[in-house]
Amino acid sequence: MSQAPDYTDKIPNNVGLREDRRLQRALESWQPNFLNWWESMGPTLPTQDVYLRTAVNVGREGWAHFAHVPMPDYRWGIFLAEQDPNRQIGFGQHKGEPAWQQIPGEYRSDLLRLIVIQGDTEPASVEQQRNLGATAPSLYDLRNLFQVNVEEGRHLWAMVYLLHAYFGREGREEAEELLHRNSGSQDAPRILGAFNEETPDWLSFYMFTYFTDRDGKYQLGTLKESAFDPLSRTCEFMLKEEAHHMMVGTTGVDRVVERTAQVMVENDTDDVAARGVIPLPVIQKYLNFHYSVSLDLFGGETSTNVANYYTAGLKGRWSEERRQDDHRLTDDAMMVDALVDAGNGQQSITEVEVAALTGLNTDLRRQYIADCRGGVNRWNKILADAGLAHRLSLPHIAFNRRVGAFAAVTATPAGELIPADEWQRRQGEWLPTDVDKIHVRSLMRPVHERGKIAAWIAPPRNGINGKPFDYDYVHLA
Ligand code: BYC
Among 261, 298, 308, which Cα is nearest to 280's? Predict the structure, then answer.
């Protein structure tokens, strides 16, 4: 008997890949391309092995398995949350009908678009972060970087599974394109703006995992509501992994703020750049940048796309089931942020009433902003506890925007509209300048020694999976 390579083991899954030879073959032929992409665009730091959490099943006990794994041996699996055979569509014109196990023809192209956009972000972030290993502040942080990277790789697999299983040849072609586009490429960039920005240093990495991964949490939360059940189940499981990424961002910024505050107090000065830490105004500028580019990921304040997605049942709201309304919204209105003509050629920022369906990007963005405030409050508590008066804040929604109503204007972090030439002159007060970036990069020296940590960041309060901070999380090559 000829021994076909057993890809069902190479691709751990709970989707019955063994029983679907066609799909198995399609994914088999994509797998080497993925691995080539990982080799050429993934993490550059050579390692022997890394203490990683691997998803092995979706059940309460079995889903996360921790072990030292050589990176190339990491197995990217396909896992969907448990199916509820009685699941009904929770919103839109099909509310109350059974969830779809196949895609209705009329929604095929919209679903394809949503899945491709979601899929495109996953490998993009791995590309953006590929050089960070070389400057990791500790083995603990290095391990977390790799954990985030392999999970983003798995999230790509999650979307590619849907493309292959439900979209035929077009889906297979899109799956190839996901490996062809690259972050920052001139010819074939990633689809959304934030995923073509650089993540050149660890402060950017923590800000990215705080603000941009958090957009991922909210977008996945809306796709988890989808009438298309396999998409819903995939996103539900992805959200479990996303929690770790949130933790990396939240505690990463905590630790940077904590260390800066310590050095400020010890030396009784704000002027800490020369003392080997990141000054609070620079942290604020990084925050301003990552928050504003992440707001762009929510699309326009009003959008007929989102109205159509909702009505069709493709993309719901955050916590759809907890909303106290008819879940159809055809007769509802809501207020969205907008620019209006204030007469005498001036514009001003206000709110206008629109059909609730077209305002759903704003609705999601507001949920996201409220969540982001939680981080800022935490960081300010660290400053307050250190006895410092300085506070961090989220900039206004009109600040530094490229997408939506406010892309047309230039505004300060306080939300004051200013002429474009003033913005040009003053943007260095609010966004990282070359001098700021060079200073931050100058601190990025690797600390790859067990139990040691760079001087610009405080150690974490807890290790991973109950292990201490000085655990041998990574063995370097
Ligand atoms: N960049 O109708 P509108 C994550 C386009 S992150 C470039 O307002 P819509 C992760 C738009 O395509 C989550 N173009 O937009 C995080 C449209 O073009 P057309 C990723 C943009 O469709 C960290 C036109 O402008 N997932 O998972 O309502 C690490 C009008 O826009 C942008 C998703 O985003 C932009 N930023 O909303 C790893 C979920 N914004 O139709 C992973 C899937 C808009 O005129 N995507 N445009 O040609 C969606 O839900 C929606 O497509 C969007 C846009 C929210 C992105």
Answer: 261
Residue nearest to atom 35 of ligand 1 (CA): 192
Residues 6+ apart with CB under 8 A from 477: 46, 47, 48
Q: How far is the CA of 255 from the centre of ligand 1 (A)?
A: 31
Question: Is-contact 44 65, C-beta < 8 A?
Answer: no
Radius of gyration of the chain (CA): 23
Give the C-alpha separation, 285 to 207, whole Å: 11
Contact between 29 and 38 under an 8 Å Cβ cutoff? The reply is no
Report the nearest-CA residue for atom 22 of ligand 1. Answer: 305
447, 136 contact by CB (below 8 A): yes
Number of Cβ within 10 Å of residue 185's Cβ equals 12
Here the contacts of 60-67 (C-beta below 8 Å, separation 24 or greater) are 63/240, 66/464, 66/465
pLDDT value at 191 more than 90: yes
Residue 334 β-bridge partners = 354
Ligand 1 neighbourhood includes 149 CB (under 6 angstroms): no
Helix intervals (H) in 60-138: 108-128
238 residue type, one letter: M
DSSP 135: G
Rounded to the nearest angstrom, the distance between the alpha carbon of 61 and the centre of ligand 1 is 35
Kindly state if the Cβ of 226 falls inside 6 Å of ligand 1.
Answer: no
Question: Using one digit for the tens of pLDDT, what is the confidence trace for 19-70?
Answer: 999 999 999 899 999 999 999 999 999 999 999 998 877 776 567 789 999 9
Question: How far, CA to CA in Å, does 94 sit from each of 111, 164, 330?
Answer: 16, 26, 13
Mutate to test the pocket of ligand 1, among 128, 132, 192 (most ligand atoms within 8 A of CB): 192
Please, what is the average pLDDT of the chain? 95
420 alpha carbon – ligand 1 mean position (Å): 26
- Single out the residue of 212, 213, 202 nearest to residue 256, CA to CA: 202
Q: What are 308's strand-pairing partners?
A: none
Question: Does residue 469 have a pLDDT over 70?
Answer: yes
Nearest Cα neighbor of 460 from 249, 150, 211, 212 is 249
Is residue 297 lining ligand 1, measured as CB closer than 6 Å? yes
Check: CB of residue 234 under 8 Å from CB of residue 80. yes
